[in-house]
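Question (not urgent): is this output format expected?
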Amino acid sequence: MELRHIKLDNLKPTNVNVRHGKAAPDISDILPSIRKRGILQPLLVRPNGKGYEVVAGRRRYFAAKALQKDGEKVEPIPCAIMAKGDDAAAIEASLLENIARLPMDPMQQYEAFARLIKQGDSIGNIAETFGITELAVKRTLALAGLLPAIKALYGMGDFDGETLRILTLASKAQQKEWLALVSGKKTHAPTGYQLKRWLLGGDNIKTSQALFDLAKCKGTIVTDLFGDDDYFAEPEQFWVMQMEAIEQRVQTYKEDGWTGVEVFEQGHYFSEWEYEKTGKEDGGRIYITINQRGDVTFHEGFITLKEARSRKANGKGETDKDRPPKPEIPKAMQTYLELHRHALVRTELLSHPKVALRLTVAHMIAGSSLWQVRPEPQRVPKPEIKTSVLDSTSHQAFENERTAILKLLGFNKDRADLVRCNGDSYPTAMLFVKLLTTKDADVSRILTFAMVESLEAGSCLIEAIGNHFAIDATNKWQADDLFIDLLKDKKAINAVLANVANEKVAEANIKETGKVQKSIISDFIKGENGRKKRKNWLPKYLQFPFKGHTDIPIETISIGASWLRVKAMFKGKRTGKST
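Got this back:
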């Protein structure tokens, strides 16, 4: 490999670079250094016609072009010259450089790997070259099965990487159907998890749930290389074969001497506390439950509590085969007693607020048929927003408290949500009894977390609570690159620039593009490129009460509209109270 200094005009980007065809790269972080010291690390180039094409070092090349455009003299650039026509090596060099600098999106990786395969490289060699597994390479190459129109939509940023990967499960016909939904004016194309439900019939049944031999399956099985799972593309065919396999198991149980085998209706829950464990030799039965995802559970050796009590009443080991006696209390009397017992309990509870508090907390967490509290789902249109929130100081404090609360209650430390209602009062009763022996301070702490976890985002409640406490986010939030990127309105960008810097800077740059103005905002926030760092800067958007940066009415923004709905309640009142 030859080292040589080459004039900038004799260089051009190569179309084998994995980022070829994208917009010019962001060079704001390296431009000041190159302006001051020049290009120190050689570009990787190869001969092409009368000049050379840049295989690796695209950002350094564009930084030099920017200096040339500004009228600055650019000295010949140090370059390492590759052998002419070495496409596979060129792609590898470009890919390695980009992977080291910044992870590429799935489509860029696919295009690069596909070119390497076309040049004769093997999956094993690609995996070894880039330090990843062969499965990871195969996952990326699975994108080859996508229609060109889907790849183009992804390239334009119309949907995220998760949706792209799920689409690899779709047949060509399903891909076309999905594209029709995308282009339809009155239709909505599913994405993410909803897309997987749409593709797989809503149940997402994994092949690992099958009780039958997959080799005999007549339906289509699709492989999710990105999730290490296989799914039944035709749930109806799965259920036919699954039920046949269950029936075969039923016959096997009977042949083995079990006195009874009962198959519950799909979705019916087996409440183990309503049964008593009993061996096969003592008349134990098999109860089979089937959930919506195809999972089958065999509960071996149980009889009902009613039968167990009857046996004890008639002597150990004996079974009451006679017709059961009529209940002592008829149904109407049961209702009469239930309502009177209810009236007695709730009247008594009125004079025990601490007990009622514990009962309330138990209901919030475990629920009942009358209580359906759910945790805030934190849905986002872009995964980058989710990442930004997860990395925030406020969210980390919330997660630390979750860990402490789960430990306090003796729950599994990996439980995703504290609030988890299932409509069954038994878990609620269990939790209520546990809370009766819990200290008041700990009960209040648990209650607070349950309330916080189920607090609705984007609601009037957020504005009411935030203004009650007069929350100051100055030391709890920092502007990140995503915040700046999400600024889209030109007038708003200039107004934010005036707030971060000053009116003079904003006025001087008012005719610049939004991208240029946003880069200046970034410079002031980070204290780069000669800009004085604006410490603890907070946009008006994160202040309480909510404010806008422009003179456009705030009711045009959903947050602003929520604040206006509760604003009158705070007129003349002090905020910042801790009660």
